[in-house]
Specification:
Layout: H1 2-31, E1 57-58, E2 67-72, E3 75-82, E4 87-90, H2 92-95, E5 103-107, E6 120-129, E7 142-146, E8 172-177, E9 191-196, H3 200-204, E10 217-220, E11 237-241, E12 248-256, E13 267-271, H4 276-282
Antiparallel strand pairs: 1-9, 2-3, 2-5, 3-4, 4-7, 5-6, 6-7, 8-9, 8-11, 10-13, 11-12, 12-13
């Protein structure tokens, strides 16, 4: 009896050592294949880190290497953003109740009509949504799991996620997409527009009913109208520069609005800071770049 009780502490010490070793091995296997990378900065050193402020003008795709064009059954449908090596962040209304196998994702594609030789193409394995409420446009955010990861050799950079719970009221952000222009047609080339971020209180005092603007939404745009995101921009990023590093972070996902560029009706976006924890949980196993 005495000998058995003397051996018990040694036995449990050995078990503890084995468990710690096993956890370390699993962690190394999960992270060991991830290359060193930085999010939110384009890879071309000849381009300035601070994006030019352009109102609704054609943009260089190299400035936004995380910008994704989504095609469903070979037809352009929405924008999206690469957030790590395996996942695209987009709007739920772009993908809900559709077949993941019918989606194609293109990165570094400058023209949605003509395919450039250096565009990167991936198929979609799975669509993940988060309690999307279609009637209210609430929780309008989705993840697309790519069949194959994006490689460093592709020269691609994901956009950074914001810090959970951050607010950006009063700051100017950039929205990018191939949405409808003044002509009423989709833009073949990527467009960018600088818009001010409003408080939800300001947005609820605009033309929308107060109940329409939830805490999961963010409004950005000009109350006088004339400039806005539009159909075809859905799912694309509202991005903001981190003042300390110059990296781009995604603070909104183009969601909905009343027509386009209407007076007193700013654009409404899914507020990404309310979904950061969910995004990271759903993206377990992906490689994240430093932000």
């Amino acid at each position: 009896m005495h000998a058995l009780s003397h051996c018990a502490p040694l036995y449990w010490k050995l078990v503890l050592v084995l468990l710690v070793s096993l956890c370390s091995l699993i962690s190394a296997q999960e992270n060991g294949g991830c290359p060193a990378c930085v999010c939110g900065k384009h890879s071309d050193p000849s381009l300035p880190n601070t994006l030019r402020v352009i109102g609704g003008n054609t943009s260089d795709i190299d400035r936004f290497p995380w910008m994704a064009a989504l095609y469903y059954r070979e037809r352009f449908t929405c924008g999206g953003s690469l957030i790590n090596d395996r996942y695209i962040l987009t709007a739920a209304h772009c993908v809900v109740r559709l077949d993941a196998a019918e989606f194609e994702v293109y990165l570094r594609r400058s023209n949605i009509v003509t395919l450039n030789v250096d565009a990167v193409h991936r198929r979609v394995l799975r669509i993940i949504t988060n309690l999307y409420q279609q009637l209210r446009n609430n929780n309008d955010l989705a993840l697309l799991l790519l069949k194959e990861p994006i490689r460093v050799e592709d020269g691609l950079v994901p956009i950074c996620l914001p810090v959970d719970g951050s607010t950006f009221d009063g700051r100017e952000a950039i929205v990018t997409g191939w949405g409808t222009t003044e002509s009423g047609e989709l833009s073949e080339h990527l467009q960018q527009l600088t818009v001010p971020i409003l408080t939800n209180q300001q947005c609820r005092k605009s033309g929308y009913f107060r109940f329409q603007i939830t805490a999961k939404m963010l409004c950005a745009g000009y109350l006088e109208g004339g400039r806005d995101s539009c159909q075809g921009d859905s799912g694309g990023p509202l991005q903001l520069t981190k003042s300390e590093s110059g990296q781009q972070q995604i603070v909104g996902v183009v969601s909905w609005g009343k027509a386009c560029a209407q007076r007193n009706y700013p654009g409404v976006y899914a507020r990404v800071t309310r979904f950061v924890s969910w995004i990271r949980r759903q993206s377990r196993g992906a490689c994240w770049c430093t932000g």
